[in-house]
């Protein structure tokens, strides 16, 4: 099968192509730089030069593939407070690729997130609100193409999808703040939880979904979740222990000033289950747990 992957050189995308190539798939990956193109070549992937805002490029690549996996997202804009810019770019990319697939019966797998869902399971929805809920608009846009002859579905990643190659900014950011402030913090009682997943089993969800997209009930998402919920206070206490600094509560009102772009996440709960995903795909997630991964971070 010919598979086109956006974000193919990123954390999740590169693991997806690592799993696809040995299975005999012909993989094409979007590469926005020479370095990304060389990385993809080393993985046995044919680079497609461009980025996910190059709509004609990605539409053409999607139309020529048997299946498309969309992992690209403007994380840089998110970190600088331009979250809605990233959302609008993502919307345009999804529209361009799915419009090119209308009536084809081909598979299109979009990447969403757990944050902003109104429940823990795969049938939960995302209200059309500002913040994390706004990404739900693009999940709904994706599934709207089911009625247009596209086998479209969403994979929701947990707040922290982690791997050995790169420190996750939601965790490394907290470490940097704790070092600068002299203590590790959490918001209010720190009871909000974040689900997580090692990147290897997370990528397996996408790979399995290519062949099993027909068994996913209409309107349901797939949850690439291994750990259902790690308390944000537990994360702060782990960081504090590693740094040898105190651990303190930060009020919700003070969170923005203290945590910067991380405040919205730390004030939100991102717990989720994946029992239905495991049942539908025959997926049995195993791997490194979040606090185990944090042992390897720089402190």
Q: How would you characterize the overall build of this protein?
A:
There is one protein chain. With 299 residues, this protein is α/β, with parallel strands linked by helices. It folds into two domains: 158 residues, Rossmann fold; 103 residues, UDP-galactose 4-epimerase, domain 1, CATH 3.90.25. The chain is 42% helix and 19% strand. It contains 13 helices and twelve strands. The strands form three sheets. It has a seven-stranded parallel beta sheet with strand order 3-2-1-4-5-6-10, sandwiched between helices. β2, α2 and β3 form a beta-alpha-beta unit. α1 crosses α8 and α7 packs across α9. It is globular and about 55 Å long.
Arrangement of strands in the largest sheet: 3-2-1-4-5-6-10
CATH homology group of the largest domain: NAD(P)-binding Rossmann-like Domain
- Ends: how far apart? 44 Å
Q: What would the principal axes of the Cα set say about the shape? A: globular
What is the residue-mean pLDDT, rounded to a whole number? 94
Low-confidence stretches: none
- Which CATH-level-2 architecture of the largest domain? 3-Layer(aba) Sandwich
